[in-house]
Specification:
Blueprint (H helix, E strand, L loop, with lengths): L13 H17 L1 H10 L4 H22 L9 H19 L1 H5 L6 H12 L15 H29 L22 H25 L4 H12 L17 H13 L3 H8 L5 H4 L1 H23 L5 H16 L14 H10 L15 H19 L8 E2 L2 E2 L2 H27 L4 H12 L7 H4 L10 H15 L3 H4 L10
Helix pairs in contact: 1-3, 1-4, 2-3, 2-7, 4-6, 4-7, 6-7, 6-20, 7-9, 8-9, 8-10, 8-11, 10-14, 13-14, 17-18, 17-20, 18-20
Amino acid sequence: MAAQAGEPFAMDVRPVGYVIGLLVAVLGAAMLVPLLVDIAEGRGQWPVFLQSSIITMLGGTAIALSCANGVRAGLTIQQTFLLTTSVWVALPLFGAIPFVLGATDARAVDAVFEAMSGLTTTGGTVFTGLDTMPKGLLLWRAILQWLGGIGVIVVAMVFLPELRVGGMQIFKSESFDTLGKILPRAGQIATQISGLYVLFTLICAMVYLYFGMSVFDATAHAMTTISTGGFANYDASFGVFAGPMEYVAAIFMILAALPFVRYVQLINGNPVALRRDPQVRGFVMTIFVLVILLVVLLEEGVHLGNEQAFREALFNVTSIISGTGFSSVDYMQWGSFAVALFFFMGLIGGCAGSTACSVKIFRYQLLFASIRAQLRRIRSPHGIFTPRYDGRPVTEEVLASVMSFFVFFIVTLGLVSVALSMTGLDFVTSISGAATALANVGPGLGDIIGPAGNFATLNDPAKWILTLAMLLGRLELMVVYVIFTVKFWRA
């Protein structure tokens, strides 16, 4: 129904509810996998997953059936915004059920925090004693991140360009749309990306297995590596696998942080798709520079050997910049320069269209292009200078969207930091906690939430604040903010 001008618009939420119901039901079916693992291990947790699966599948099915009569061929822009946000609210709520009913005996705040951290591929945890936790629950944490990783790619490819969020429309505009020339059907693209995601996970697991991981560890860590999630099966994170497996993890974290659409182009006849992408070049060059800086620091300041310095620098830089959040050592012991470096590299992120998170490398490239054009205008006031990306002019709309994202990100970072400090947290924990949640990185800084700690000892208000911040960061802020505006709910 059309609304009168200026009157509230009663949005039809049934199409949104139908999709959410289906996804919740799928999540419930996924709970049967850790059920089988627990039966094989004999830890007695299988009834937890059976109950959780029944509750989740029935809940999802009920939601879908109640909304089925409202299904339409397409979604309005309001419905798309609402769907994108609602999915990342509903799935963590249902995904938290096994943690509440299971051996962790988690309270609601801890269970929702862990599930949100998993599905947003943040990787911060409130659980301790991971070394002795039932394998079914460990696998569920990995599955949450693995499903979240493929979900992130879908959102980045389908929804954010359509919603014109944070400059993502640059990947939709015709001048940058080289994908359609090779694969005209979006369904075919999605299928190939999903296939590549599964293939990367299988290859990563096999390589981990080859270098000495158990079958279970290789499977779980492959899921959390390719999803750039960072959940580990041990309290020491990746530190229990020091050696060649750090190189393996670094390679696959880099692969997962590159745009998956370029892999699709690669296998469909475009051998230079990756090499010509400015995101890929910028991301790889950034890693190279940061690793060199840290290698020099570790050799001269911490006195590590050449190979160990390179390995630890490569692994930890890749882990943080990609937003994976694995840690192999306590880099808080590397000195103040290294700590500051890790804080800022967590705010860089990987490529758009990957499982990586944070600000994303392309936004910095657009920012620098805009600054460069502005400086040239100052030097030559009568000249016409247009920012360019990949050799093509960038529209004012894209630049305004990117600048708005940076402003929103900085303001939100400040607000979350202040909110955390009001709960009693110290300055370092507050600002690094806000940054790591908004950037979906995982570990923060300091003795509490640093690479040698976790989020278990934080107070409940701080955990709820961080849970919300993870949601905001994963959906690139404005997707969530826009649904709280009055005009969003009008025709």
